[in-house]
Structure formats: structure tokens, C-alpha cells
Amino acid sequence: MRPLIDIASRVSEELSQILESAVNDPDIDESPTLGSVRKIIAESQAGESFEADRLHFDQSQSLLEEIGGLIEQCGDDAPAIDFVTVKASEDLSCVIEAIMNTGASPPTLEVVRNALLQGLVARLVGEGAIDPDEDETLQEEIETLIVHYGKDAAAENFLRYE
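Now predict its structure.
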């Protein structure tokens, strides 16, 4: 069960990438926890060292300090996957932005799904904003987000800015 407050939204991009890498590592037998990821950060993983004293963009805390704070809040054995920041693909971000640019209230994932079903992808393909073959992929992606976060989750929280 996901926490009521989405704590992953407060995890830095750097830490989220490390957590995601640990979660997706096929060589790990057990699901990684915050404690096991802290060890990865402090020591090294597969010969690649992480600089424990490397500061985030806001220069306020290191990765070790950040994961230490999460462990204080949620425990050493909290599943690492609960802290991975989920972002929409570039094309789904384009769809979400198109809906937001209509001036309507901030869209939910349900609003995005309905827009996809009503042909928004065809319009965006016609404008050259997204690839023509993305309709099915976008539908699968939005369905997955709805299953994990609920239809009423604010879609703008999943925007990918690159």
C-alpha cells in the first residue's frame, strides 16, 4: 500500500534515480529497502562509487543525509520502490501540457485518459508534437498511472521537464 502522502514527490531526482536503479537491479535477490540503498550510496555498487558528500542542486544536503532523513521518517526496512519518483514519458507529458494549455482546471489522470480516448493524440500527431504510433503506448501508460495513483491524481505531478 502506498503512503497516504506521496513521499516520493519530496525525493530529489538524484536519489530517485539511485532508488530506481536498485529496484530494477536484476542481480538483487530481495526487494531493496531504504537501508540497503543507504549502504549502496555509502559504499559503492558494481565498482561505481557515489560521492556521499555530493550536494543536490539546492546545495542543502547530501544524498546520505537525504536518505537518512527518509529512514528516520519511514524506517530502515521501508521498500525503496515507494520512494521512486514517477514521471510521464515525453509524449504523455506533451498530452498533459496540451490539456493544461486549454485553460481548464488542472487535469487529473482521468481527464487525461478521457482526452486520449476522445482523439487528442490524433490532433497532436497532426501538429507534429508526437509520433503517430504512440496512441496505444500512451493509453497503456495512463492506465498504469491510474492503477498506481488513482484516477483523481493531479496529472501535472507526473510532468517530465527536460
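Residues 90-158 form one domain.
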